[in-house]
Write a structure and sequence with these properties.
The protein is of the alpha+beta class. It has helices spanning 38-43, 52-65, 68-73, and strands at 90-102, 109-120, 123-136, 139-148. A hairpin with a 6-residue loop joins strand 1 (90-102) and strand 2 (109-120).
Length: 149
């Protein structure tokens, strides 16, 4: 037996999701704790988001906490990717809903226009998108979106 110390094998580290607890303020910006707001949709204990806007907010929060399973579950089957490729250098810092059209209990489709703020590689930035949502088997799902300036 050798006395050489072997180095522990390391695999490429997947960046840790930001520490968001059920008691933390919800990343989506609503005045509620994560557990009472988007966290209940992520865990499945709150059912599905009842409006397209709440689905948008919960999907933003899922990007913050890197909840791939929720993002894929809430994506329309016809546009859903095989996986979500989280950028390890991206940190989401805020969400602003600019407008929402339709997307309530009385609609089958809806749109939400938002700006998501982030820091990437130490540089601040913003992503503006007009997202389309539709009902799939009774639940709101993200279909696709147009990224703007």
């Amino acid at each position: 037996m050798s006395r050489r110390k072997t180095r522990p094998r390391t695999s490429p580290a997947r960046p840790a999701a930001p520490a968001v607890t059920p008691e933390s303020p919800c990343p989506c910006g609503l005045d509620a704790s994560y557990g009472a707001c988007c966290g209940r949709f992520h865990s499945g204990t709150g059912g599905g988001a009842p409006t397209a806007e709440l689905l948008m907010r919960s999907r933003y929060s899922a990007f913050v906490v890197r909840d791939e399973a929720y993002l894929l579950r809430s994506w329309a089957p016809e546009t859903r990717p095989g996986e979500v490729d989280f950028d390890p250098g991206m940190r989401w810092t805020g969400l602003e809903i600019e407008s929402a059209t339709d997307g309530t209990a009385f609609h089958q489709q809806g749109t939400v226009t938002f700006t998501a703020r982030y820091v990437h590689g130490g540089e601040p930035g913003a992503l503006r998108e007009r997202s389309r949502f539709a009902r799939h088997e009774g639940a709101w799902v993200y279909v696709d979106g147009d990224i703007g300036e």
